[in-house]
Write a structure and sequence with these properties.
With about 190 residues, this protein is mainly beta. It has a single domain (about 5-180), classed as Hexapeptide repeat proteins (UDP N-Acetylglucosamine Acyltransferase, domain 1). It has one helix and 21 strands. Strands 1, 2, 3, 5, 7, 9, 10, 12, 13, 15, 16, 18 and 19 form a 13-stranded mixed β-sheet that branches. Strands 4-6-8-11-14-17-20-21 form an eight-stranded mixed β-sheet. It is globular.
Amino acid sequence: MEQQIGKVTNGGGMLYPFNGVWPKVADDCFIAPGARIIGDVEIGSGSSVWFNVVIRGDVGTIRIGKNTNIQDGTVIHVSSGGINTEIGDNVLIGHMALIHGTVIENFGFVGFNAATMDRCVIKSKGMLAAGSLLSPGKNVGEAELWMGRPAKFVRELDEEMLKNNAMGTKGYAKIATQYLKEYNPR
């Protein structure tokens, strides 16, 4: 008989240890079926991790704040060179993003299919546009929009755009609560 090494979490996603370290996920997080969270990962209250996301804290640490949402198909990892990943509160990460060895401050935004590489920083309210690639060591400033492959500064975000980004985070928190009611295995 095969021994199961993972644990099902709220919503049906799976937690796995690495080197004896289990992920720590707040009780009110929604972790969707198909999501995999491995190793030294901590996720704060009210956050959501959607279908088929992989968060792998095996060669470093990953810290994700409160009320952050990580949308379907995203991969979050660290660098074996000692570069951890830190994601703040109220961050919105779009579908199919790749976050690697990066700091994303509170209210940061990463668009669909965008990628960040080692030692990148997205400051508070900064936005990396859909499909963009933030090359190693680049810093998106506070309330700045960067786009392209490689990403470059485009403009400051106006109040309307900042408001829309904040509404996106709130919208995902609301729907995550609904999913949690339907998918909670407990």
